[in-house]
Structures are given as structure tokens and as C-alpha cells.
């Protein structure tokens, strides 16, 4: 896996004044972690967009701060609810000799023959999967090849995913990731949509230890409250 690096600068502007940084093309951020004194930093928007697209929120990013490298994971990104602009980023410093848990996004690739030829419905039961491993072994995403789904009721299980042996999967091996469902009538579809869906509690994988002043920076714009992505 190619090493992902990000050049940063120490940040002296904090609190609600960070709005001025955004106008100058910077994304205010903070590096924090267990037993680590938080560091306020700023990164150029261009560099952050590049690294975020490449690493996501699971691949280790080596932050360069004052000629020193800090291995970290992009733990949280705050964006404006209206403009979708980046408002703030959290980097969680990790130890390369300690395993952590992380949720890895599933990227469904290919075309299912059962959908194209038989008119089946592709049902995705999972969008991400939780794994445990050393930070440097965590991938950006896991590819799920749906071209193997050729018949009705054919499916892909967790144990079928191309996951490195260096990682421990936290989901049941027999859990269904995706399957092909036979076409249903409009009446059946309407009945299903009217049935309340069960909700699951979100699992916090890495405990946040963010300084209180950082919370104000995430909502420093005058726009409505931002969404977290």
C-alpha cells in the first residue's frame, strides 16, 4: 500500500476566527489521540481534497507538522449543509504497533447478470464492514464484485469478500452482503415501503478526545448547522 502523506502547517487562529482561514483556501484541522497532546493545524483545501479522496477515513495518512511525521486517520470531516464546503477536519493519531477497529466502505463494482438479463433487484445489505488490524494495513475500501450474481437468490457473504488475512473481520462470516431478489409488483413494493424500518445504534469505533474549542470551529460559518460526512 502506497504511503499517503499530507503537508500541514501549525495553526494559531482558533475558535470562530477560523472563517478567515477558509477564505484563504485552508481547512482548519486538529490532530488528537489517546495520550497525545492535541495540535491545531491547517491544510490547503487542494491537498486535503486529494488526500481525502485517496485515503478516506480508514487509510493511514502521515501528517507532516514542523518537519515531524504523525501517522493518523481522518476521523471526522465537517461540511457545510448548504455549500458542501469543508469546514473542519479531525485527524486521530494512531500507533502503528497497536491494532484498532475501523469501518471500511464497501465499493460495489461490476454488473450483476441477474439484474441485466433477468430483471432481478440487487439488494445491498451492507455499505461498510468493521475490521480490526494495524492502522497501516487498513484499506480505503473493499471491492465487492457483483458480476458473480447470475441468478435469483444468488448472494455474496461476508466470507466471500476479498479481505486481507492481516485483518480480523467483526461481522459474521455467513452474513449476507448483497443478494438478488426476484422482481415484485408495485403493490408489494408499496407495502414494503410503508413498513417501518428497524434502526441500529451506531457503534463508535474510536473514542474521540477532541479539545472543546474545536467544536466551535466546526460551526463557525453563518450558514445553517453543517452535516457530517
Output the keywords.
5 helices, elongated, four-stranded mixed β-sheet, disordered C terminus, 229 residues, eight-stranded mixed β-sheet, alpha+beta
Describe the 3D structure:
This protein has 229 residues and is of the alpha+beta class. Strands 1, 2, 3, 4, 5, 6, 7 and 15 form an eight-stranded mixed β-sheet that branches. Strands 11-8-10-13 form a four-stranded mixed β-sheet, with no helix packed on it. Strands 9-14-12 form a three-stranded antiparallel β-sheet, with no helix packed on it. The chain starts with a strand and ends with a strand.
Strand-and-helix sequence, N→C? EEHEEHEEEEHEEEEEEHHE
As a percent range, the share of helical residues equals 10-25%
Distance between the termini: 25 Å
Average residue pLDDT: 86
Q: List unreliable stretches of 5+ residues.
A: 198-205, 222-229
Please give the count of helices: 5
Shape: elongated
Beta-strand fraction estimate: 35-45%
Kindly name the structural category: alpha+beta
How would a crystallographer describe the biggest sheet? Answer: 8 strands, mixed
Number of DSSP strands? 15
Summarize this entry quickly.
The chain has helices spanning 19-23, 45-55, 113-116, 186-193, 212-218; strands at 4-7, 9-10, 26-33, 36-44, 61-65, 68-79, 86-93, 100-109, 121-124, 128-133, 141-145, 155-157, 168-169, 176-181, 227-228. It is an alpha+beta fold.
Amino acid at each position: 500500500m502506497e504511503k499517503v502523506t499530507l503537508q500541514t502547517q501549525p495553526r494559531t487562529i482558533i475558535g470562530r476566527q477560523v472563517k478567515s482561514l477558509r477564505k484563504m483556501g485552508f481547512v482548519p484541522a486538529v490532530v488528537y489521540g489517546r495520550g497525545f497532546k492535541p495540535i491545531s493545524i491547517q491544510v490547503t483545501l487542494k491537498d486535503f481534497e486529494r488526500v481525502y479522496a485517496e485515503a478516506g477515513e480508514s487509510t493511514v495518512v502521515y501528517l507532516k507538522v514542523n518537519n515531524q511525521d504523525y501517522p493518523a486517520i481522518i476521523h471526522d470531516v465537517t461540511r457545510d449543509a448548504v455549500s458542501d464546503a469543508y469546514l473542519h477536519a479531525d485527524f486521530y493519531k494512531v500507533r502503528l504497533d497497536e491494532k484498532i477497529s475501523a469501518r471500511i466502505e464497501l465499493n460495489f463494482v461490476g454488473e450483476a447478470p441477474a439484474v441485466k438479463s433477468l430483471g432481478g433487484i440487487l439488494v445491498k445489505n451492507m455499505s461498510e464492514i468493521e475490521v480490526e488490524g494495524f492502522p497501516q494495513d487498513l484499506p480505503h475500501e473493499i471491492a465487492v464484485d457483483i458480476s458473480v450474481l447470475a441468478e435469483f437468490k444468488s448472494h455474496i457473504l461476508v466470507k466471500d469478500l476479498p479481505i486481507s488475512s492481516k485483518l480480523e473481520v467483526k461481522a459474521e462470516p455467513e452474513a449476507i452482503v448483497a443478494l438478488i431478489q426476484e422482481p415484485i409488483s408495485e403493490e408489494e413494493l408499496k407495502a414494503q415501503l410503508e413498513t417501518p424500518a428497524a434502526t441500529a445504534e451506531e457503534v463508535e469505533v474510536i473514542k474521540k478526545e477532541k479539545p472543546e474549542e474545536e467544536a466551535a470551529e466546526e460551526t463557525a460559518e453563518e450558514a445553517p448547522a453543517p452535516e457530517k460526512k
